[in-house]
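PT: before anyone asks, these are the final sequences, not the draft ones from last week. 769 residues across everything. Please model them as a single complex and drop the result in this thread when it's through.
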Amino acid sequence: MNPSLASAVADLPPLLRGHVLLSGAAILIAIAIGLPLAFWAAGRARVRMPLVGLAGLVQTIPALALLALFYPALLMLDRATGARLPALGFLPALIALSLYALLPILRNGIAALQGLDPSVIEAADGVGMTRRQRLLLVELPLGAPVILAGIRTAAVWTIGAATLATTVGQPSLGNLIFSGLQTEDWVRVLTGCAASVALALIADGLLALVETGVALRSKPRIWIGAGLLALGLAAALLPAAGASGQSRPIVVGAKNFSEQYILASAMSDRLRAAGYRTERRDDLGSAVAYRALAAGDIDVYVDYTGTLWTNVLGRRDTPPADEMRAELTRRLADRDGVRLLGALGFENAYALAMRRDRAKALGIASIADLARAAPRLTLASDIEFLSRPEWRAVAAAYGLRFAAARSYNPTFMYRALTDGSADVVSAFSSDGRVAALDLVTLADPKHALPNYDAVILLSPRAAKDRRLAAALRPLIGHIPIVRMREANFMVDRDSGKKTPAEAAAWLLSDIH
Amino acid sequence: MAGTDFLALEGVAKSRGGRRVLDDVRLSVPAGAFVALVGPSGSGKTTLLKTINRLVEPDSGIVRLDGADVRATPAPALRRRIGYAFQGIGLFPHMDVAENIGIVPFLSGAPAAGRAARVAELLDLVALGPDFAARAPRTLSGGQAQRVGLARALAARPSLMLMDEPFGALDPLTRDELGRAYRALHDRLGLTTIMVTHDMTEALLLADRIVVLVDGRIRADAAPAALLAGHEDEAVRHLVAVPRLQAERIAALGARP
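LR: through. Structure below.
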């Protein structure tokens, strides 16, 4: 089997389980809230319109935004009430998806009741049914096809939208799609898509069986459809119930690019070797990751000093690397109980890079050298570099002025350098292509570019665990920039791609 | 002497959207009577009928059944004691004929065994064969459906039947046949019947007593023959004149050589 397919399929079972549990729970909650609400609102014109309008409004919010909004909302609620709500993972995903599934259930529930023949309702009242008997004996059975059609719509939407739960740290089939997208592993993306589509089709098919069973008054159809749905949910629940007896696993976080997947994989390997059970939370947003760590939703991840310095501490100055790291270590511990375990030994910073032969020919080794030659040279940058503070800082410090500066997407930026249409690029220092294309990154003697040392951060809980720190400590200072570049390139290159797990194993092969 | 009557309406009034639909209606009906409620569209006759089984709650006034205020009984229990048939019929489409007919005994918790026998008896009563029991409502003709509707209304052995234009949607032949069949049932079972109709001919031919309602008020209350003989109220005379003139014109057609 193709190695990336094999790796995607190996990752599938726990993701599928998470996906089924999340979407199943969200649909059940939406039914439990939506149907009573529909029955209550159906006869009340004054609440009906605002209610359907409100549910429709929720629907217009992009699903991704709705998920993202519940993270800060739960965090605020947690601070306000001290209720220890998990702001990341299952809960925010569940709330957002339940809200999302509410509209079709509510709208069809109301339509089902309003669409009933008024003479049948008059007869139900006339023969002396109570309100409850009328609902159970007449309105529900007759409205069932329309109600079930709403549940089917909700199920298909929810199973699709649940792939986005990955972004708030809830494992789902979206993990395969998001990580595949980042590493340009299309087999992985397709595996995630196919699994999600298959799940939606199966759920829809079983609900259709129940629906026709109700319409044809066929009890076997209803029982087979409902039974298989219940069985699927139960199967997803079983392994979770078995695991709940053990201690909580260590949750390893990763942001959404190859280097992060590789390092998370490497840390997980080390922890498992030390006897820990581990879980992954991938594709965390840059801002979400640190807060998730401070809140204890994840236990360990890799961040970069410059990012923490500006985003978490809100600082604008650029002290030398050692001072920055010392200050971060102190402040994060005091403020959040977060432990900065140490630097891995490489930086992932903005750097200016040139082809080795061209740099040698022009006699350029540092940005100071570059400043003299720059008026005759062309800069190719990524799309945001020229508007970032890093560029303003470096341009001001060295008096850099290029003959021309153009923005490209990263792939074309490197191509511009190799085909000679540009002389200098804005690169990420740990990007594998720096090594692959034989580029040199120019020294920054004035320290105008802030440091982006990769550091391991531990949650307050993990910070107290000495065995855990001991398991990760061998990584500290042992991942030099050349090794990281090579590992990144294994995953990012177009042919002979490796999975992040394979690259992690290679990275660990010389660490003992 | 209102208290001794089987059914009594005492000053019943109802307004809807600022309009008086029923205006101080007083009516007493002895057991066994067959009363037709007639009047032009919007005269309030359906509303009046529904105050009796509490499908409509009046703003003021009292409805008494067997001397007791109907509000003393919870509405569902009251309605199970009163037969109700209406133009829309409203058979439950997801239940077969037997389940439709047996619904009131089912709601009252009657044992299943007794219900089957009762269904057969009721089908026979409305002149439908026992093979109808398993049929679905959508397979019935309009006349058959209303016979099932009547059987359902009679299932709990009510002594009072409320009927709201029960034959209004049927073709003239079926309508006449079913009207006469019901009148025979009324007599045989000793029922008290209040039937709303806008068809004065039907009222004159079926009922013992005709109550004319105009703008929510009772304008006439008399036996068919007395009403035909003439009435002081212009609107009432006008209503009765139509069927009589039609009958005379038809008779004249037949007399022509």
